[in-house]
Amino acid sequence: MGSDVVEPGTVRPGGRTARVRASVLQATGDAIAEHGLIGLDLADVAARAEVGKTTVYRRWSSTYGLIADLIASMAEDSSPRTDTGSLEGDLKANARLVATTLADPRQGPVFKAVIAAATCDDRTAEALRRFYDVRIAEWAPCVTQAVARGDLPAGTDAREVIAAVSAPLYYRLLASGAPLDEAAADRAAEAAIVAARAGVYARGR
């Protein structure tokens, strides 16, 4: 890899560089949605984005570089959390957002590709961890607020609760193939709430 290759997710470029990045990452997501991870090709992405192949090869270096930067971009652009004023409302809103995202005909395949790539590429794995760090940190306050209100036991680990909401939905995406609908989302949130109220996620348990 040449010294002029930019490590994906390490900068937020402006001007023409930002436009090129946006076009290339849009093309990457489109290509994954159409052909999956195996069909991802740098030359095809360059053609879709209408940029030179040399630019794509120099900056991203490989399909893994594209995928790592795509998930980094998704973290940068992630939606703010919903604040309903209740733990149940907040966690159901989180679960429904996750389910809607994973069921999307474009976003679902992108997440599958990112997770698959993360199993064999350290850059993608780190970018995926950063993505979830951002999303969990965004939603964790709804749990800490519930603790402050007395809705959950003191010492409840907010990050563990948020992760527990998403976990069964990712299982549906990656393993069971069961529907990612509103009912599944609400059930995931309700299960996490029951466990949290029982003290399952209390630190030092």
TrEMBL record:
Classification via Pfam families: TetR_C_11, TetR_N
SUPFAM superfamilies reported in the protein's UniProt record: Homeodomain-like, Tetracyclin repressor-like, C-terminal domain
Domain HTH tetR-type: 18-78
Signal peptide: none
InterPro entries according to UniProt: Homeodomain-like_sf, HTH-type_TetR-like_transc_reg, HTH_TetR, Tet_transcr_reg_TetR-rel_C_sf, TetR_C
Entry's Gene Ontology molecular function annotations: DNA-binding transcription factor activity; transcription cis-regulatory region binding
Keyword terms: DNA-binding, Transcription, Transcription regulation
Keyword Transmembrane helix assigned: no
Portion annotated as DNA-binding: 41-60
Protein name: TetR/AcrR family transcriptional regulator C-terminal ligand-binding domain-containing protein
Origin species: Streptomyces beijiangensis
